[in-house]
Specification:
This protein is mainly alpha-helical. It is about 50% helix and about 5% strand. The radius of gyration is 23 Å and the shape is globular. The two termini are about 30 Å apart.
C-alpha cells in the first residue's frame, strides 16, 4: 500500500520529522520569512505581512480531515490491508485510539501554531494587544503613516484568522496554550495550558475585533478597491464564525442576532438551479456569492496548490474510469472514504450525493462484490502532483441559514423557509410543517441537512459535538454507536478485529471527546510540566 504522502510533499514530511514541541515550532526558521524586527514600517509592508498570514492557513488543511471528518460517521479509513504506519495512525484516530505520539496530530498542531506565530507578529507590528481582564483587543500608540481605519482593518483580518485557529484547537484538544504575542523558545516553556473558558474568551475578543473592523461592504456591491481583498475575512465572515462560537457555547440568542444580520445585510446568497451546488465548489467560480470565507489555493506549480485532490482520489484506475473521477497527476491516496452509511442516508434524487460521492459498482467479472465509495467533492484533475486549484470552504451562506435554524431551535415560517432554501436547492421536495412537527423531527431535519450539505467539508464531527448543546435530541455518542454497529463488519477485517460492543465502548472513553496534547509538548517541557488529556 502506498504511503499517504509521496516524496514530493517534502515540506510536510519535514514538519512530521521535526516535531519537538511548541517551542520548536515557534522558533522554526523559514528562509523565505521576512524578519519581524525592522520590517513593519509602512502600510504596504503590513499588507504584505497580512497576505503572508493568509498563506499560512493552507498547511493545516492537509491534516484537518484526519482529526475531524474521519472521526465522524461520514468517512473512514478504507485500507484494511495496509501496514504503513501513517495509514494505521489515521485508522487509529478513526476509532478513537490515536496515541499521543501520532505524527499527524502533532503536524496539525505544529502548522497551526506556526500560523498563529505569523499572525501574532503582524498584530504586534500593528501595536495591538489582548487584555485578558476585559476580554478585548486593545490598540496602542502607533506611528506608521496610515489611516486608523486601515490599521484596524488589517488587525481585524488577522484577529479573524487567529480566532479561526484557536476555535479549531480548543474543539480538538481542549485547553491549549494561549499565545497572543511572539515568544522565544524559553518563554514558551513557561506558558501553561489555559482553561477552555479562557481560550473561548480570547476567541470572542478576536472575533469581536474582526466584526467591528473588517470590510463591511455587501457581497456584489464592492468597489474595485474592495474587490482586491475579496477572499479575505470580512465583517460577515467574522459575524458568521462568531455565531458558530456562540452556538458551541450554548449562547443561542447571541448567535441568532449575528446570523440575522448576516442574512439580512451581507449580500451573500444561495446559488440556485440544477448546477447550483456544483457551482459553489467550481475552480472557475471561486469566491462566489455563497462563499463567506474560504482558504485559497492556486495551482501553477508555485507551491500554493492543494494536496487534497491527490489524497482523496482513488489509486485504482479502473475504479476511477467507471466513476468518472478526475485524476490528479502523481500519487493518489484513496483516503477519507465516504461511508456507505453516509451515501445511503441521502435521498436518491439529492444532487449533493452524486456530486460529493462516487461509487464503484463491481461488475459480474469483478474479483470483489463490494461497492466502494470515493470522495469526489474535492477531486479535480491536476497537471502537477499536489497542486489542486480548489479552495477550501470554511464558511458558506448555507451554513449561516442552517445555523439560524439551529439557533431558533423550533419550526416557524422563517426557519422552515431557510431550511427549504438549502433542501430544495438539492432537487428535493420542500419540507412542510408536518415533516417537522415535533422537536425531535425538527432537530433531525436540521442535523440531516447539515450532514448532506457539508459532507466532506470537516463539519460533521464538530456539528455532532455541538448538537448536544443546541439540539439535544441529537446525541453524538448515540450517533457513533449506531455508526460502529453498521461499520463493524468493515473493522473486523483489521488485525485484532473488534466486536460491535467493543467498538461502542469507545464512545464512553475519554479519548472520544478530545485528541491528545502532542507527546512532543509533554516530553520536551522540563520547566513547566504539561498535563495530558484524560485517557492518553
Amino acid at each position: 500500500m502506498k504511503n499517504i504522502f509521496n516524496t514530493s510533499k517534502l515540506f510536510i514530511l519535514f514538519l512530521v520529522l521535526s516535531v519537538s514541541g511548541c517551542s520548536d515550532y515557534i522558533e522554526l526558521e523559514n528562509k523565505n520569512d521576512i524578519p519581524q524586527k525592522g520590517f513593519y514600517n509602512s502600510e504596504s509592508e503590513l499588507n504584505y505581512a497580512l497576505s503572508g498570514c493568509y498563506s499560512t492557513l493552507r498547511a493545516p488543511i492537509a491534516y484537518e480531515w484526519m482529526l475531524s471528518e474521519i472521526r465522524s460517521d461520514n468517512t473512514f479509513m478504507n485500507l484494511t490491508a495496509t501496514t504503513v504506519p501513517q495509514n494505521l495512525q489515521i485508522y487509529s484516530n478513526d476509532i478513537f485510539e490515536a496515541p499521543a505520539f501520532d505524527s499527524f496530530i502533532e503536524s496539525y498542531w505544529g502548522t497551526t501554531y506556526q500560523s498563529i506565530r505569523s499572525i501574532n507578529a503582524l498584530l504586534e507590528g500593528l501595536k495591538t494587544s489582548y487584555n485578558p481582564n476585559s476580554g478585548t483587543i486593545e490598540y496602542g500608540s502607533f506611528t506608521i503613516t496610515m489611516t486608523e481605519a486601515e490599521r484596524k482593518r488589517i488587525a481585524g483580518e488577522a484577529s479573524f484568522m487567529r480566532a479561526y485557529h484557536y476555535f479549531n484547537l480548543v474543539r480538538l484538544y481542549g485547553g491549549v496554550f494561549l499565545i497572543d504575542k511572539v515568544v522565544s523558545s524559553e518563554e514558551s516553556l513557561r506558558i501553561p495550558r489555559s482553561t477552555v473558558a479562557d481560550i473561548y474568551k480570547f476567541i470572542l475578543a478576536d472575533l469581536k475585533n474582526a466584526s467591528e473592523n473588517c470590510i463591511s461592504a455587501k457581497y456584489g456591491n464592492t468597489t474595485d478597491a474592495q474587490k482586491a481583498v475579496q477572499g479575505k475575512a470580512t465583517v460577515w465572515a467574522a459575524k458568521a464564525l462568531l455565531a458558530k462560537v456562540y452556538l458551541t457555547l450554548g449562547q443561542k440568542a447571541d448567535a441568532l442576532q449575528l446570523l440575522t444580520d448576516v442574512i439580512g445585510n451581507s449580500g451573500h446568497s444561495i446559488l440556485t438551479g440544477a448546477t447550483g451546488y456544483a457551482n459553489v465548489f467550481s475552480s472557475t467560480n471561486e469566491m462566489n456569492a455563497e462563499i463567506v470565507f474560504a482558504i485559497r489555493f492556486k495551482s501553477g506549480a508555485l507551491g500554493y496548490g492543494s494536496s487534497l485532490s491527490n489524497l482523496f482520489a482513488t489509486n485504482n484506475t479502473s475504479v476511477a474510469s467507471q466513476t468518472k473521477l478526475a485524476q490528479p497527476v502523481g500519487t493518489r491516496g484513496s483516503y477519507n472514504n465516504p461511508t456507505a452509511e453516509l451515501y445511503n442516508s441521502y435521498a436518491t434524487n439529492d444532487i449533493r450525493r452524486d456530486y460529493s460521492i462516487k461509487v464503484y459498482k463491481p461488475t459480474a467479472t469483478s474479483l470483489s462484490s463490494t461497492w466502494t465509495y470515493w470522495a469526489a467533492k474535492h477531486n479535480i484533475a491536476t497537471t502537477v502532483a499536489n497542486d489542486s486549484e480548489l479552495d477550501w470552504p470554511v464558511l458558506r451562506y448555507s451554513d449561516v441559514l442552517l445555523m439560524y435554524c439551529e439557533a431558533v431551535g423550533a419550526n416557524n415560517p422563517t426557519t422552515l423557509g431557510y431550511l427549504n432554501q438549502v433542501h430544495t436547492r438539492a432537487g428535493l421536495t420542500a419540507l412542510t410543517s408536518a415533516n417537522v412537527n415535533t422537536q425531535a423531527l425538527y432537530e433531525k431535519a436540521v442535523a440531516d441537512e447539515r450532514r448532506w450539505e457539508f459532507a466532506l467539508e470537516n463539519q460533521r464531527w464538530f456539528d455532532l459535538l455541538r448538537f448536544s448543546t443546541t439540539m439535544p435530541t441529537i446525541n453524538a455518542k448515540a450517533v457513533m454507536n449506531n455508526h460502529f454497529a453498521v461499520m463493524q463488519p468493515f473493522y473486523a477485517q483489521y488485525d485484532g478485529a473488534y466486536t460491535t460492543a467493543q467498538l461502542q465502548q469507545k464512545t464512553a472513553d475519554p479519548k472520544f471527546d478530545l485528541l491528545p496534547i502532542p507527546n512532543s509538548e509533554i516530553v520536551t517541557n522540563t520547566i513547566n510540566p504539561i498535563q495530558q488529556n484524560p485517557g492518553y
